Amino acid sequence: MIDLTRMQQNETGKIIEVQGGYGLTNRLEAMGIRVGVTITKKSDQFMRGPIIAQVGNTQVAIGFGMARKILVDVKI
Predict the structure, then answer these.
(1) Percentage above 90 pLDDT, the chain
(2) Could you please report the per-residue DSSP string of the chain?
(3) Which of 10, 31, 33, 49 has the highest CB neighbour number within 10 Å of its CB?
(4) Predicted TM-score (pTM) of this structure
């Protein structure tokens, strides 16, 4: 289990946990990011930039700090 920032580009996994408070979990759920959903990391910026992830057919940009709080079980 790793956080979203440590995933490789185009790697897919299942969200296991979101380590955040009520505000963070609500903001992520509004983007379709919740426990049990499959997520694919599409790209990231060098040195703590935003991360582009795909959830279903939608691509979303997530800040580095938020992405560190999303724990993912990576599929091999």
Answers:
(1) 88
(2) -EEGGGSPTT-EEEEEEE-S-HHHHHHHHHTT--TT-EEEEEEE-TTT--EEEEETTEEEEE-HHHHTTEEEEE--
(3) 33
(4) 0.91
Among 32, 33, 29, 21, CA closest to 71: 33
Instruction: Identify whether the C-beta of residue 53 lies closer than 8 Å to the C-beta of residue 66.
Output: no
Query: What are the chain's domains?
Result: 2-74 (2.30.30.90)
- Tell me if 54 sits within 8 A of 72, measured CB to CB: no
Q: What is the mean pLDDT of residues 46-73?
A: 93
